Amino acid sequence: MAGLKAGLREIGLGLSLAALLGLAAGGALAQSGGSSAAKTVAPAPDKPAPTAKVAGSFGNWTLLCGKEGEDTTERCSLVLPLVEKESQKLVFRVIVTYGPQGNLVLRVDGPTGVALQRGVEFSPDTKKIYRMPFQTCLPMGCKALLLVPEDLRNELAASEQGAITVYALNGKAVRTITALDGFAAGMAALDKHVAANTEK
């Protein structure tokens, strides 16, 4: 368990580009930072701004790619924004990307004011539930991370819709349903980009 927590902390610090790429897609995104037990990692003031571009759209998913600082390696993430119909406000953002150790990572950015100890429940096809602990929270929002096992990847590819559940401070479940179509094609494109960068 200690190894898993350490790995997730490393992934959280290594996903600053994913946060910036999410901002490029539009809307506010819960950024990398620290909880009461962790320090916020700030970029160097003279660090060049990252560049981001939309590399493809697959159903509800968008493939975003870009470079950060002096790093010449292009990094890509699949992003799925969940917007409230009435207010058009971003409620959740689902990000799938590869972490520093090459592991596939699922990240959910969500609102503050939720029961942090309950974490996030992610359910592909609204059946099997994967529980994701919150890693960091800032005034803009909170983020939860999960290392993606092969069975979850397969379930996402086969699922038409999924559910994200958080819990209010009074214990009430707040559930959001979203279409997951396009994930398989998006993952194929993400893997293609990763393979192309690995060969360089």
Structural summary, described in words:
The N terminus is likely disordered. This protein is 24% helix and 37% strand. By secondary structure, it is α+β, with helices and mostly antiparallel strands. The chain is built from four helices and eleven strands, in the order H-H-E-E-E-E-E-E-E-E-E-H-E-E-H. The strands form two sheets. The protein has a seven-stranded antiparallel sheet, with helices on both faces. It has a four-stranded antiparallel sheet with strand order 7-6-10-11. The longest helix has 17 residues.
Query: In percent terms, what proportion of residues is strand?
Result: 35-45%
Taking strands numbered 1, 2, ... along the chain, how are they ordered across the largest sheet?
1-2-3-4-5-9-8
The total strand number stands at 11
Mean pLDDT: 76
Major sheet characteristics? 7 strands, antiparallel
Please report the number of helical segments: 4
CATH class: Mainly Beta
Order of H and E elements? HHEEEEEEEEEHEEH
CATH architecture: Sandwich
And the CATH topology?
Immunoglobulin-like
Q: Which percent range fits the helix content?
A: 10-25%
* Shape annotation: globular
Termini Cα gap: 35 Å
Number of domains: 1
Uncertain residue ranges: 1-48
